[in-house]
């Protein structure tokens, strides 16, 4: 029996799923591939964050779990080839919650998912975040791009980083370089659920994620995205220590790097741990040593 589920991966404590925009684009295409390969699974909403992902899917528990696990497996292969990191997500747990149809629980699950980018301080509204379905609902501007059928097999493989023949030819690849979510997200179903844009915004603004943002409004939200800090680290390491990686630093140099990241980017221990590839405890210890 098809039901609606919220599927959330565990947060990576000491690393990032996505180190740059190319990683996000590849992952967006992998979501599209799984949607094409699982036409019996309805994609209601999803979001790709720096160190975790969320999906709201409709289907059997077996099918929705397979959808996300196949996505993780596919992305892990890409990540290993690019960065040489094995088994990035093999032990990354997946939480699966059955969402009841009553008490507006489905609306709350979708709002919770879409608001992740806002509570992280990345954007002011869920529709502004490109790595998910936040911009898909209620009359967003018409999209333009290239239909899959108009690409050669070689060009499609280069775009998708894999051989794939399950993508419908009519699906559109946007100028951003990935298959647009409107091709496979059940926008009409979600719009029928919320009924009006105002009601969607009400749930976004009253979600548990929105309340968390209000609690942290003064100072605790990160000022920069993980990818922004990560992109500056090589220059920072070379200019300060004449070294190439965090692992090459002496203990006192690690403390200084943590201090530099903290004050240059207003980063907390959690964010420092992610961008440096260390545990939260190790990052907190570095900050305590300042």
Write up this protein.
By secondary structure, the protein is α+β, with helices and mostly antiparallel strands. Helix content is 47%, strand content 11%. It has 2 domains: 213 residues; 63 residues. The longest helix has 23 residues. The termini are far apart. The relative contact order is 0.14.
Number of helical segments with 4 or more residues: 12
For the largest sheet, list the strands in their spatial order. 2-3-1-4
Can you give the mean pLDDT?
A: 87
Helix content: 40-55%
* Fraction in beta strands: 5-15%
Radius of gyration: 20 Å
Order of helices and strands: EHEEHEHHEHEHHHHHHH
The profile of the biggest β sheet is: 4 strands, antiparallel
Our count of domains comes out at 2
Overall, the morphology is globular
> Gap between N and C termini, in Å?
56 Å
Poorly predicted regions are none
Structural class: alpha+beta
* Extended strand count: 6
Set out the fold topology:
Blueprint: E1 3-9, H1 21-37, E2 42-48, E3 53-59, H2 61-83, E4 94-99, H3 105-114, H4 116-119, E5 145-147, H5 153-160, E6 172-174, H6 187-194, H7 197-206, H8 208-215, H9 226-241, H10 251-265, H11 269-276, H12 280-288
Antiparallel strand pairs: 1-3, 1-4, 2-3, 5-6
Quickly describe the structure.
This protein has 290 residues and is α+β, with helices and mostly antiparallel strands.
């Amino acid at each position: 029996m098809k039901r609606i589920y919220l599927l959330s991966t565990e947060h990576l404590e000491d690393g990032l799923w996505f180190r740059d925009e190319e990683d996000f684009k590849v992952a967006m295409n992998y979501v599209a591939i799984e949607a094409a390969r699982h036409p019996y699974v309805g994609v209601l909403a999803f979001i790709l964050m720096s160190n975790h992902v969320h999906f709201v899917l409709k289907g059997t528990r077996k099918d929705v779990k397979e959808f996300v696990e196949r996505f993780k497996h596919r992305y892990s292969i890409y990540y290993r080839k690019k960065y040489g990191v094995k088994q990035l997500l093999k032990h990354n747990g997946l939480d699966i919650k059955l969402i009841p149809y009553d008490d507006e629980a489905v609306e709350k699950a979708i709002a919770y998912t879409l608001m992740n980018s806002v509570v992280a301080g990345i954007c002011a509204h869920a529709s502004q975040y490109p790595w998910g379905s936040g911009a898909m609902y209620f009359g967003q501007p018409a999209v333009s791009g290239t239909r899959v059928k108009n690409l050669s097999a070689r060009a499609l493989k280069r775009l998708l980083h894999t051989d794939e023949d399950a993508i419908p030819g009519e699906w559109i690849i946007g100028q951003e370089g990935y298959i647009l979510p409107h091709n496979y997200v059940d926008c009409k179903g979600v719009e029928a659920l919320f009924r009006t844009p105002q009601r969607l915004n009400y749930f976004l603004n009253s979600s548990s994620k929105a309340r968390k943002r209000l609690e942290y409004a003064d100072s605790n939200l990160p000022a920069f995205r993980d990818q922004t800090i990560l992109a500056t680290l090589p220059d920072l390491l070379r200019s300060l220590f004449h070294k190439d990686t965090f692992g090459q630093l002496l203990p006192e140099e690690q403390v200084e790097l943590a201090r530099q990241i903290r004050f240059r980017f207003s980063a907390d221990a959690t964010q420092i741990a992610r961008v440096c590839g260390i545990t939260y405890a190790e990052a907190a210890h570095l900050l305590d040593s300042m």
